[in-house]
């Protein structure tokens, strides 16, 4: 695998606002999650850690959100949280509510309505993004990750960018956040679903945030020089090895989080064949639609599995491929008619809010 360090890779990273290879990672992550929900008839397939695709998403989210906030602060002197929350709301909530609505008839009519009561009872939790407390038997309970991410989006910017003003303090808080979450996961994961689902996800979010702080700190230059000397095969194999370890013991998911963090750093700072593959049009196209794919995939995967009724492993893989393709196609429709228009609304309202604040400051200055 070819690797090439650019003369000033860190500057190139700092000047970019979009990283196509990260969308390529999203495309793989949503496939991993779908493979887990395939519920294979074969024990070794059921043990395959497709569920850890969620952890990859969390590392990415922690990194991207923190990087976005750090850059806004560097450009403007401070972070406007109301504008940030507006953008997040219109990015996440409209699609979520649309899919939640689609689950109403599924819960009412599916399985002769046996899970309808569980769905009704869970609605207040879904509508307040507390679905990480929804019982697993409720339809749409797999959206528990959104509850965790939304609480992170709500609390982390306040703590890290309002309460704390120094990058070193933010990094320290991120490290403490990771250490506590990882410690709780290792201590309680065998006996507590909350530890397995929540603590490990917060650990991944914290680790992604730490990478963002690292690449914005004084340590970024020596780190970028070091990672430029590492062949891309090394972080790639580290990710694959971590997945193998998770297959045998799910506690190694923390090692996966760490290896994914280094892998992301390498993708961002070093030109390589792997970055080229992940940045190709198809994985990027899929990655941009991965949020809605994650939300709707069971609405497609389950009917495809029932229709084909696979009797062997190759046919199960056919089911997965067909469902993945159909989910991407359906998500494209959502992307065109819901996600993109709603994101534009969020950006417009965010810009209006910022412009209003600037006018208020100008008026105050002129009358003082």
How would you portray this structure in words?
With 368 residues, the chain is an all-alpha fold. The chain has one domain (3-367). The protein has 16 helices and 2 strands. A two-stranded antiparallel sheet has the order 1-2. Helix 2 (20-36) runs parallel beside helix 15. The longest helix has 55 residues, at 313-367.
| Percent of residues in β-strands | under 5%
Q: Which consecutive residue ranges, at least 5 long each, have pLDDT under 50?
A: 362-366
Profile the largest sheet.
2 strands, antiparallel
> Please, what is the average pLDDT?
91
Radius of gyration: 21 Å
Q: H/E element string?
A: EHHHHHHHHHHHHEHHHH
Number of domain modules: 1
Termini separation (Å)?
63 Å
* Helicity range: over 70%
- The strand count comes to 2
Number of helices: 16
Please state how the strands of the largest beta sheet are arranged side by side.
1-2
Tell me, what's the shape? globular
Structural class: mainly alpha
């Amino acid at each position: 695998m070819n690797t090439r360090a650019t003369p000033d890779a860190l500057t190139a990273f700092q000047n970019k606002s979009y990283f196509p290879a990260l969308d390529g990672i999203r495309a793989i992550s949503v496939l991993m999650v779908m493979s887990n929900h395939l519920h294979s008839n074969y024990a070794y397939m059921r043990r395959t850690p497709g569920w850890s695709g969620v952890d990859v998403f969390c590392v990415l989210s922690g990194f991207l959100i923190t990087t976005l906030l750090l850059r806004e602060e560097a450009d403007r002197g401070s972070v406007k949280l109301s504008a940030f929350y507006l953008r997040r709301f219109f990015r996440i909530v409209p699609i979520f509510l649309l899919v939640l609505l689609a689950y109403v008839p599924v819960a009412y009519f599916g399985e002769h309505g046996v899970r309808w009561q569980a769905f009704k009872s869970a609605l207040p939790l879904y509508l307040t993004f507390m679905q990480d407390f929804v019982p697993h038997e409720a339809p749409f309970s797999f959206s528990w990750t959104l509850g965790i991410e939304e609480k992170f989006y709500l609390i982390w910017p306040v703590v890290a960018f309002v309460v704390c003003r120094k990058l070193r303090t933010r990094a320290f808080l991120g490290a403490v956040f990771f250490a506590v979450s990882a410690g709780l996961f290792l201590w309680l994961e065998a006996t507590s679903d909350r530890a397995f689902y929540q603590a490990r996800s917060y650990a991944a979010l914290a680790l992604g945030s730490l990478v963002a702080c690292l690449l914005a700190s004084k340590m970024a230059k020596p780190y970028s020089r070091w990672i430029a000397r590492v062949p891309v095969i090394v972080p790639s194999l580290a990710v694959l090895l971590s997945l193998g370890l998770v297959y045998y013991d799910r506690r190694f998911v923390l090692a996966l989080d760490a290896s994914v963090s280094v892998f992301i750093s390498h993708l961002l700072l070093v030109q390589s064949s792997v970055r080229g593959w992940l940045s190709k049009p198809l994985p990027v196209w899929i990655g941009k639609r991965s949020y809605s794919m994650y939300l709707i995939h069971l609405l497609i995967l389950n009917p495809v599995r029932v229709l084909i009724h696979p009797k062997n492993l190759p046919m199960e893989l056919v089911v997965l491929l067909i469902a993945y393709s159909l989910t991407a196609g359906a998500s494209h429709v959502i992307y065109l008619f819901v996600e993109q228009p709603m994101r534009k609304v969020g950006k417009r309202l965010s810009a209006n809010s910022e412009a209003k604040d600037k006018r208020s400051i100008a008026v105050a200055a002129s009358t003082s």
